[in-house]
Write a structure and sequence with these properties.
Layout (H helix, E strand, L loop, with lengths): L1 E7 L3 E2 L1 E7 L1 E6 L2 E6 L11 E4 L7 E10 L25 E5 L1 E4 L4 E4 L8 E2 L5 E5 L7 E5 L19 E2 L7
Antiparallel strand pairs: 1-7, 1-11, 2-9, 3-6, 3-8, 4-5, 4-7, 9-10, 11-14, 12-13
Length: 171
């Protein structure tokens, strides 16, 4: 789970470019805005571009992203070019968000890009992965309902379970 909390003193526009390894769900102030990532291949990733102005408010805003990263598993297929050959990488969860809040005078107010400002991350202990030896496409996820974090995507404060995310790129 990735989290960015920021305040706005005025009405702003925000266009987000977003992608993740392996998939994501994007929330702004508790409302699910979209999910992805945009389709691509192993050699090239694409970003979804979303206008999210209508979800921002004056005051505290929370951008929350649930990132699910498939474990590093290769399917047991003779067809190495098949669609299920590689269903995960060992890169782990990786999130890329780029965007800047622009006010009505067309001036930048705050940059919320993952490489330029602080984002916070927590490991979702509700999801685990297991392998079935007789299944030809690899691992499956299990979800423990008792461990699902609730309301993390609407919090106006960074909880104890969150740590500062490691910046792996910069602009």
């Amino acid at each position: 789970d990735e989290l960015k909390i920021f305040s706005l003193n005025e009405k702003c526009k925000l266009k987000l470019s977003i992608t993740a390894l392996s998939r994501y769900s994007l929330y702004i102030n508790g409302i699910e805005i979209g999910h992805g990532p945009a389709q691509g291949c192993a050699e090239q990733y694409y970003c979804d571009i979303l206008d999210v102005d209508e979800y921002l408010k004056i005051g505290v805003n929370t951008i929350a992203v649930k990132v699910v990263s498939f474990p590093p598993i290769t399917a047991l297929s003779d067809n190495v070019m098949g669609p299920y050959n590689t269903i995960g990488t060992d890169a782990g969860p990786c999130l890329f968000v780029m965007g800047e809040c622009i006010n009505e005078k067309n001036k930048p107010v705050i940059n919320i890009s993952t490489g330029l400002c602080d984002w916070y991350v927590a490991n979702d202990k509700a999801v685990s992965w297991h392998m079935e030896s007789d299944v030809r496409i690899g691992a499956f996820e299990s979800v423990c309902g008792e461990k699902i974090p609730y309301e993390w995507n609407i919090s106006e404060e960074i909880g104890d379970e969150f740590n500062l995310a490691i910046r792996r790129w910069s602009m």
